[in-house]
Amino acid sequence: MPTYAYACKDCGHAFDIVQSFSDSTLTSCPECQGTLRKKFNSVGVVFKGSGFYRTDSRDSKGSAVSPAPAAATSTPAAAPAASAPAAAAAS
Q1: pTM value?
Q2: CA 49, CA 56: separation in Å to the nearest integer?
Q3: 18-65 tens-digit pLDDT
Q4: Cα–Cα distance for residue pair 72/70, rounded to 1 Å
Q5: What are the structural domains of the chain?
Q6: What separation in angstroms does the CA of 71 have from each of 55, 63, 74, 81, 84?
Q7: CA dist 62 to 28, 55, 71, 74, Å?
Q8: How far apart are CA 35 and CA 5, in angstroms?
């Protein structure tokens, strides 16, 4: 059940209350019986915990395997291609 924040327009008393979605909005202050207003926060969802990472929702097989073969393949292929123009320039 969500927690709602209320503040009294007359006396300034502010409080939080846990209400279900089907409960009606409170209208009178428990302190002075004045008019209440519901306060709204700018953040609707708050994630609490150690953190969330870009790879949390990805397949571990796809993200871990794909960079390794590309790096291993490009290094040996780059060395012979660099030496071929040098040999042609020397002759």
Answers
A1: 0.44
A2: 14
A3: 999 899 889 999 999 999 998 887 766 767 777 766 666 666 665 444
A4: 6
A5: 1-41 (2.20.28)
A6: 20, 14, 5, 16, 21
A7: 57, 10, 15, 19
A8: 14
